[in-house]
Amino acid sequence: MKMGICAWSVPMDGPYGVKVAADYGFKGMQLDIGEPERGFQLSYPHVQEVYRQFAKEYDITFTAISVRLFDRYGMTRKNGTPEKDMVMEGIEKAIQAAESMDIPIVMLGSFLDGEIKTVEDFDRTVECLINACELAEGKDIIIATENLLSIEENQKLFEVVNKDNLKLYFDTQNYYLNRNYNAAEMVRELYDYICEVHVKDGKGHISGALLGEGDSSFFETMEELKEKGYQGWVLIENYYDQKPLSNESDKPLELLEKDVEILKNAMV
C-alpha cells in the first residue's frame, strides 16, 4: 500500500500543503477542483502549474481529483436548475483538470445534499455518472463514486451504469457512521470495484478520533484490505484543525504525525 492524504486534511491550504504532506512522509495527495464561485480554481492553468512544481520538488503524486461541491449541490439535483448546471460544470472541469495534470481518478461523492435516498436520487446520480464516464472515455481516467449505498445497492449501481471506467472510492468510516454498515464486510463484497481508499475515524462524528481510536473498526477494515492484497493508495481524511478532533490538541500537525505512525503500522 502507498500512503497519501487529502489536500483538505492538511492544515495548510493551497499548493504549500504539498510540502507539508511531504514533510510528514506522504507520497500522494488527492486534490479538489475548487468552488464554482471562484471558477473551480484547479481548472486554471496557472494553478495547475504551481501544483505541478510543488509535486515535482517534493516527490508527491496526485492520485485523484474530487468535486467536493457536491456536498452543497449534489448529483441528485433536478435537471435544468442552476444548481445542476454547476454540478455538470464541476464534473467537466474536474475531468479536464485530471487530463491536463495526468491524474487518473475523478471522485464524485454522494453525501449531504447529494446523498442517494430515493429512487429518483438514484436515477439522477446514475445519469450523472454515465455522463462523466463517457466524458472520461479515452482519457485513461477513472470515474469513482463515493457513496453510502449498501453492498446490494452498490452492485446495482455498477450494473445500471455499466461503464468499465466506473469504480468505487472506499471510505473506512462513512459506511458505519451513516448506515451502521460493517466496512470490512463491504471490502470483502465490493473489493473488485475499489480503486482507492480514504481512512478516517470517529465516535459518532465524522473525523472525531485518530485512526483506530473511534468506533468504525478501522484496524479490521485494514486487515481485510491486506487480506485482499490491496496495493493502491490509502489516503488519510481526518480533519486535524477542526472540531471535535482538534479538541485533542491545539497543534494539528502533532495529531497528523500520530495518525501517520498509526497508518504506517496498520499497512504493514
TrEMBL record:
Q: Which domain of life is it from?
A: Bacteria
Among Gene3D superfamilies, the record links this protein to: Divalent-metal-dependent TIM barrel enzymes
Question: Where in the numbering of this chain does the Xylose isomerase-like TIM barrel domain appear?
Answer: 19-264
Pfam families, per database record: AP_endonuc_2
Q: What is this protein called?
A: Xylose isomerase-like TIM barrel domain-containing protein
The scientific name of the source species is Oceanobacillus caeni
